[in-house]
Amino acid sequence: MRYSILSVLGQALKGQKDWKPVWRDAEPKPAYDVIIVGGGGHGLATAYYLAKEHDIRNVAVVEKGWIGGGNVGRNTTIIRSNYLLPGNIPFYEKSMKLWEGLEQDINYNAMISQRGILNLYHSDGQRDAYVRRGNAMRLHGVDAELLDREGVRKMYPFLNFDNARFPIHGGLLHRRGGTVRHDAVAWGYARAADQRGVDIIQNCEVTGIRVENGRVLGVETERGFIGANKVGLAAAGNSSRVAAMAGLKLPIESQVLQAFVSEGLKPLIPGVITFGAGHFYISQSDKGGLVFGGDLDGYNSYAQRGNLPVVEDVCEGGMALMPAIGRLRVLRGWGGIMDMSMDGSPIIDKTPVDGLYLNCGWCYGGFKATPASGFCFAHTIARDEPHELNAAYRLDRFRTGRLIDEKGVGAQPNLH
Ligand SMILES: Cc1cc2nc3c(=O)[nH]c(=O)nc-3n(C[C@H](O)[C@H](O)[C@H](O)COP(=O)(O)OP(=O)(O)OC[C@H]3O[C@@H](n4cnc5c(N)ncnc54)[C@H](O)[C@@H]3O)c2cc1C
């Protein structure tokens, strides 16, 4: 069923009774050409681009829970391509370009909203770092504008300019950044992949990976063995556990990241703002709630919930930046499991096991990468070699020392 203005009108006349399920509830077949482990944004996008770009349609996405239950439905919906390093900028800019055409491509309203993202700076040194970043972005064809204090005040007059502990000196504005409705991305890619023949198998945990003579043969699941020529792992926060089933030890730590949403307000914050003197960022959802978050909880965990000290820390950051939010009531908070890599950049690569491929290490920022990650992972699986855009995201870079240390904090995952 194609969605269009005519289908919406037609359904309205029929009392909304004829809508079809968005994807089939597939039963596992005995074997597939490709199995993707993990039905998050990255797994679903990979399946979609395998079918669309490489005509590989005998594909299953095997998900232990429900579609949208992982980080793809838990993030704070921010997309951007304001990176600094050569390995990262072209990849994230490809993602931005794919976002820009995604709704037409998959025929699904993902509420993509390029409302702009502003990174604030609070010192001369931080300004110089943003000048460098902005120049690197512009050299790669990405938009970037440096605002001074008055430029920021014009956009966001309610920020704390006058009595702040960390006075705002200006900001780096990336107008094409913004937000996307996160779970619609999962549903849209699931539907588009399903329409191209991909089986989406929910409530089916992968419990083992069968490997013989160095080659993958398929996956053990709660519903029995499913054979495959190739297996792609896209399990985000559970990557280390899933890869361990094939005997791989990953340079990844799993840590909790929380986010929060307030009661609904009339339109207040037109774009996304990040505080430069602490880890705090905020935007407003189309429903009116302020959506905000901050740092990791700071310990390793597989629990999808966090603890109170970080709630306090995040709210302190918010109060320092924008004291007016002190009068708001927080409606909900939640946590997700982050696959923190040692240099803060992702891994999209082959593994030492033939036919087994790896996609992980997304840290705080994998939602914005969803389209390019799926596009490049599909290429890597189909062609058995990386796309030029993920050539730097190698698994062995931690051994060879070719780190992509965007934040410059070294092998310290809790600092990324
Ligand atoms: C609070 C929070 C805020 C964030 N904010 C942003 C943001 O604003 N912008 C941004 O770019 N990124 C953000 N992120 C990061 C982003 O959400 C993740 O990096 C990204 O979603 C990870 O990829 P995914 O969608 O494929 O993950 P997931 O949706 O987590 O997909 C992985 C799937 O694998 C499944 N799985 C695991 N083990 C198995 C198994 N054994 N068998 C079968 N299935 C299995 C899981 O159930 C899960 O559904 C945020 C994350 C959190 C938690």
Strands, total number: 18
Ions and ligands: flavin-adenine dinucleotide
> Beta-strand percentage?
25-35%
| C-alpha end-to-end distance | 42 Å
- Class inferred from helices and paired strands: alpha/beta
The parts where pLDDT drops under 50 for at least 5 residues are none
Q: What coarse outline follows from CA principal-axis ratios?
A: globular
Q: What's the SSE pattern?
A: HEHEEHEHEHEEHEEEEHEEEEHEEEHH
How many H/I helices?
Answer: 10
What fraction, in percent, of the residue positions are helical?
25-40%
Radius of gyration: 21 Å
Biggest sheet, in brief? 8 strands, mixed
**Overall pLDDT, averaged?**
96
Structure commentary:
There is one protein chain. The chain has helices at 5-13, 41-54, 89-106, 124-139, 149-155, 182-195, 239-244, 308-321, 370-383, 397-400; strands at 31-37, 59-62, 78-79, 117-121, 145-148, 170-174, 178-179, 199-201, 206-212, 215-221, 224-233, 252-264, 272-274, 281-284, 289-300, 330-341, 347-350, 356-360. With 416 residues, it is of the alpha/beta class. The strands form three sheets. Strands 1, 2, 8, 9, 10, 11, 17 and 18 form an eight-stranded mixed sheet that branches. Strand 17 and strand 18 form a beta hairpin. Helix 2 (41-54) runs parallel beside helix 6 and helix 2 crosses helix 9. The longest helix is centred in the N-terminal third of the chain and has 18 residues, at 89-106. The protein is globular, with a radius of gyration of 21 Å. The structure holds flavin-adenine dinucleotide (FAD).
